[in-house]
Write a structure and sequence with these properties.
The protein is mainly alpha-helical and 465 residues long. It contains 14 helices and six strands.
């Protein structure tokens, strides 16, 4: 048409198949061909780009890091398992770690003592956990089956064994120093014996290796602190002018009675006597004046020793002695700072470990009579008679004073000198009995004319409690 030759649209069979392979048929030629799947076109070719050097290095390092991390986690897990495992120790054991000991040496000691069986593992774990603190020296108790981790915790936290040292009230400084030297756990020497009354009796805890001088310093610091606190809350009307005087009187009270329920009342007796300007007449002051820091005579006090003038003998001197006669405890200091409000001027042993108190001399005589009756019923002398007044018979003499009163205030249970049997007023030999230390002598307060309780001009006004 229009002079142009019509293009032949018919394709040969081969061309049709080729074209059919290239393009999917839109219309199937048969039902079977309709359900026949057709092939998907092939993916486009991948373009391979060349990697840079830094990228390869980073990839390798990352792979190495991951591998090391996995190995570290595995190793740490195994380490934790080993260090928390039960140790070889079969029973509790105490091990001493000397001062200035390194980790390796500590591991060796624990291995020798059977606490651990892997010293290298102990060192490694201690190094990994050094942020917890340094391993400490001391005396430690390891329980049976202690693991490496538990052993390190014990050494890091410093759970050392604490030993106890108990210093009783009423000891002199010399006696306390002697006790410190008897303790084998303490080490070192004491520079000098502390002044009397500067140590606070108490129970002190310490580790092995603590020096004796450290214990002394601790006791001195405790005494200063306690004295300062007690002095601040003392009664305002005491005839005590300084903390030192409080310690002096407290040391006398401490030596006179060991009963807690009597300390304030005994202190009240001495306070009342000071207010009336009466001599204290305390047996322990006689002893201290004779033996000093030794603390005890080991026997009874002789009549001649009562009248021996020493700076501490309160049968001779007026008022308080120049210094303490022992180291009083906190309770005795408290008792003197706040004594009982009584009018008592005398006390004597009541036979039960305590004392009978009296306001007048007549009442005191009746108390003494009762005490004598109790003494007669005893088969053996009382051990408390040591350092108490007695008038032993001198060989070749007879007629020991046996029928006087007991000392005016304190226990006056008499004790005879070893090997000497005193003779009673009836001429028969027997056990010495207590008596008034001053009766029949120039020290007898009833014969003392230096004061007159009925004359207010010579006696200071007594403040009513």
């Amino acid at each position: 048409m229009f002079g142009r030759k019509k293009k032949n649209t018919l394709l040969s069979e081969h061309e049709a198949e080729t074209q059919g392979a290239e393009q999917p048929r839109l219309a199937p030629r048969s039902p079977s061909e309709a359900i026949k799947p057709t092939l998907a076109p092939p993916p486009p070719p991948r373009l391979r780009r060349r990697r840079g050097g830094m990228l390869s290095l980073f990839s390798g390092l990352l792979t190495l890091f991951v591998a090391l991390a996995l190995a570290g986690v595995f190793g740490f897990t195994m380490l934790e398992r080993e260090v928390t495992a039960k140790g070889p120790l079969q029973s509790d054991k105490v091990v001493l770690i000397p001062r200035n000991t390194g980790t390796g040496e500590i591991a060796r000691i624990l291995k020798e003592e059977g606490v651990i069986d892997q010293p290298f593992l102990f060192e490694a774990y201690a190094l990994l956990n050094r942020q917890r603190g340094q391993l400490k020296a001391g005396e430690f108790q390891f329980k049976a089956g202690t693991s490496i981790e538990d052993a390190i915790d014990t050494l890091v936290q410093g759970k050392a064994i604490l030993h106890a040292l108990t210093v009783p009230e009423g000891l002199t400084s010399d006696q306390i120093v002697a006790r410190l030297y008897e303790n084998e756990i303490l080490s070192g020497d004491i520079a000098e014996t502390p002044r009397e009354g500067t140590l606070l009796p108490d129970t002190y805890k310490f580790e092995r290796g603590t020096t004796r001088q450290q214990i002394v310093s601790t006791m001195q610091a405790a005494q200063r602190q306690a004295l300062n606190q007690i002095w601040q809350r003392r009664s305002a009307d005491l005839p005590i002018k300084s903390p030192q005087e409080l310690v002096i009187l407290a040391s006398i009270v401490e030596k006179e009675t060991g009963r807690a329920d009597e300390r304030t009342r005994v202190a009240g007796v001495f306070i009342n006597r000071l207010m009336k300007r009466m001599k204290l007449q305390s047996d322990p002051t006689i002893v201290y004046g004779l033996v000093g820091g030794k603390g005890t005579l080991g026997r009874g006090i002789m009549r001649s020793e009562i009248e021996t003038a020493t700076p501490y003998n309160t049968y001779v001197i007026e008022g308080l002695p120049p210094g303490p006669i022992a180291n009083p405890g906190r309770a005795a200091l408290e008792a003197v700072a706040n004594p009982s409000r009584t009018k008592d001027l005398y006390f004597v042993a009541d036979g039960s470990g305590g004392h009978a108190f009296a306001e007048t001399y007549d009442q005191h005589q009746r108390n003494v009579t009762r005490w004598r009756q109790i003494e007669k019923t005893k088969a053996t002398p009382d051990s408390d008679n040591v350092d108490r007044v007695v008038d032993p018979v001198t060989p070749g003499q007879s007629g020991a004073v046996d029928d006087g009163l007991s000392e005016l205030r304190g226990t006056a249970n008499a004790m005879s000198t070893p090997g000497i049997r005193p003779v009673g007023a009836n001429g028969k030999t027997g056990r010495a009995r207590g008596f008034d230390a001053s009766e029949g002598t120039e020290k007898d307060p009833l014969k003392n004319k230096t004061f007159d309780l009925t004359n207010p001009k010579n006696v200071p006004a007594l403040k009513q409690p």
